[in-house]
Amino acid sequence: MADILKQILAKPIQLADQVTKAADEASSFKQECAELKSKTEKLVDLLRQAARASSDLYERPTRLIIDDTEQVLVKALSLVLKCRANGLMKRVFTIIPAAAFRKMSSQLENSIGNVSWLLRVSASGDDRDNEYLGLPPIAANEPILCLIWEQIAILYTGSLDNRSDAAASLVSLARDNDRYGKLIIEEGGVGPLLKLLKEGKIEGQENAAKAIGLLGKDPESVEHMIHAGVCTVFAKTLKEGPMKVQAVTAWAVSELAANYTKCQNLFAQHNIIRLLVSHLAFETIQEHSKYAIASNKATLIHAVVMANSNNATVKVAVDEDHQSPVLHPMGNQTPNQMHNVVTSTMAMKGGAKSPQKPSTNHVRSNSQGNVKQFHHVYYQPQQSGATMKGRELEDPATKFYMKAMAARALWHLAKGNSSICRSITESRALLCFAVLLETGTYDVQFNSAMALMEITAVAARDTNLRRSAFKPNSHACKLIVDQLLNIIEKADSELLIPCIKAIGNLARTFRATETRMIAPLVKLLDEREAEVSKEAAIALTKFACTDNYLHLDHSKAIISAGGAKHLIQLVYFGEQIVQLSALVLLCYIALHVPDSKELAQSEALTVLEWASKQSYMTQDETIDALLQEAKSRLELYQSRGSRGFH
């Protein structure tokens, strides 16, 4: 880079020497030419200083300033050469207005100011001594550009403390105005920010991570950062950095992923999903006796040992997620301890020999017996002792903030991405979300709920993911459903809507006998907030729609829970955003259970006839077709006069 800048500086230096030489040979306007020569000499001295310090120059303003200076010197040379004209006829036909010299003198003065500012701003922090650098003439029309140049120059050459302050200034600029963020990227601010994130002090690293997160507000900006190496730096920080910095970095990951979904897989390729899950799991799972996780090299065994005074049941689920060695966060237990727990439980009953590779079937067939106590085995990804100790000593607020940001990052990384959702569900993340929905701070709970909403939304479309991650007998799935229903039943939290959506997304995973989620959703149809009623209707529609194999059972459950009367009210009197959702659900129920006594008593046929005459309700061809089909089915079973039941 220094060699390139030297080449850029060579031409204006040559032009300045030519101007000086031509001024000495001037035969007219000698005084004006002498003044131009004086300023040109001052300018060329500054240009030579810049050439000697080319390795320290901040490239972006250097190119702009040198280009502008070169144009000024070309004009100066042309003007001075006119004053060198010999012969009477040349002097007569060469007209030089006096204003031309004043204008040129002013332009040379501006070039001197620009190059002088460039040398000052490119000086190291110690040499500059925090002096006010002023405003270069080239940035007179856009003062903010000068401020951005100054801060980025400090990021390149300043001390760690000064670089931290500069990053904080860029955070303020990027937060205030999107255009300023664009300028920071265009002026080369991403590279030094990433460097500060790698090697700065904690405060500087936090400021750098914040700045990067704020700068990634559109796909073009995020793509620029990816080319600059943001994925590698983030992965290193999430693995080795201080927890405060890791938390801000996780937030930055969420911002970039939210604004440019194509970067999701790039983050996943750099192992960021696993690192985020490890932060989510730290001091989360082991605090709850419901959860037990062990890993034996490449295989992770989720074992939950539930005991009472008479017997114990050992449930084992195999998960092929962990490929790296792991260790116990509470001590130095070996990875074979879970194997010992399982085999010792088997031995208590029948004295079975310890198998070399215990299988799920073997464990289940030999696990009937009396167990007097719980056995818990918990593992975290391997980390150095110093790192683990540092994490454990962090204050609770920082730990919760770390979890909140990790959950937020997983939320945005999972959105619409089947492969990432599969990676998340094959890890311990679902268990962590279940715990954090119950025990976390509000931010942790909200981000966990949003992450589950996005994961279940993908699972609703991806059959393989749904069958592998949300099996009806899956312990993690049961715990998540319990927590989601608990929040829905309370119905007094801002977590309500994402939890409603998540339950709706899981509609095709429930058995026919499992109807406990229907009544709480039906109750929300009578909610005062239109948005809540709308989402409850949409969720129930996923249970009652034809695509759901158990639509008949679920439709009957909705009617039994009193859904018919609520839907009638919503279709007639609800806000427009609720009416259509309620109408679709009512149509599916009428289609599947047309002989329902409750539908007849609620005069559902009359409602459907009324809805078919409302133009805004039948604009959508799909809804109109569904409405006509449901109306026809009801007409077959319910006479308009008697409604079929008296």
UniProtKB/TrEMBL annotation:
It comes from Hibiscus syriacus (Rose of Sharon). GO terms for biological process: cell surface receptor signaling pathway. Keywords: Repeat. This is Chaperone protein dnaJ 11. Residues 6-122 form the DUF7792 domain. The keyword Cell inner membrane does not apply. The keyword Repeat applies. Gene3D superfamilies: Adaptor protein Cbl, N-terminal domain, Leucine-rich Repeat Variant. Pfam families: Arm (PF00514), DUF7792 (PF25055).
